Amino acid sequence: MSKARILIVEDEPSLQSALKNKMEVEGFDVETAKNGLEGVEAVKRSVPDLILLDMVMPVMDGLTMLKNIRESESSKNVPVIILSNLSDSQELVKAMQTETFDYLIKSDVSLEEIIGKVNDKLDPSIGGLEEVVDKVNQELGHTE
Predict the structure, then answer these.
(1) Which domain holds residue 112?
(2) Which residues, including other chains, have CB under 8 Å from residue 80's CB and lie 6 or more apart?
(3) How many domains does the chain have?
């Protein structure tokens, strides 16, 4: 199984670097972009499995990038987790209307929580269901 590809679109160099390093340690293949325009170009080159997207950036903001990638058949269903600040609340409402349901407030979340959210989006079975199914299958196998 190949590594999941994550695109991090974040203009703050220290946060981008911390996210990239943590994601790579967790086994993800990571690409970064420092603004929405670079993010759109990265998605056109190769559609990632998930995008971590800042909202307020130079050149092209996250909401505009999100609209752009949702217009393409190849990237319209890519899961997106918005990384935002509390001051971006109006932007979050707009993003929610474009069917992006996951967002994290930067100041309230740790790198570990971001990894957890990424894993949940990439594999919803991580929430424990897979373990329950395995246990039931084992029990059924023992009863035959």
Answers:
(1) 5-143
(2) 50, 51, 52, 53, 66, 100, 102
(3) 1
Residue with tokens 């293949």: 29
- The H-or-E segment that residue 8 falls in is strand 5-9
Q: What is the pLDDT of residues 15-52, one digit of tens each?
A: 899 899 988 988 889 999 999 999 999 999 999 998 98
Taking alpha carbons only, the member of 55, 34, 31 closest to residue 103 is 55
Kindly write down the DSSP assignment for every residue of 10-47, as one continuous string: -S-HHHHHHHHHHHHHTT-EEEEESSHHHHHHHHHHS-
Total residues belonging to the chain: 144
What is the DSSP-derived secondary structure letter of residue 96? H
CATH number at residue 77: 3.40.50.2300
How large is the angle between the packed helices 62-70 and 89-97, nearest 10 degrees?
A: 10
Query: How far apart, in whole angstroms, are the C-alpha atoms of residue 25 and residue 34?
Result: 21
Q: Which pTM was predicted?
A: 0.72
pLDDT at residue 2 greater than cutoff 80: no
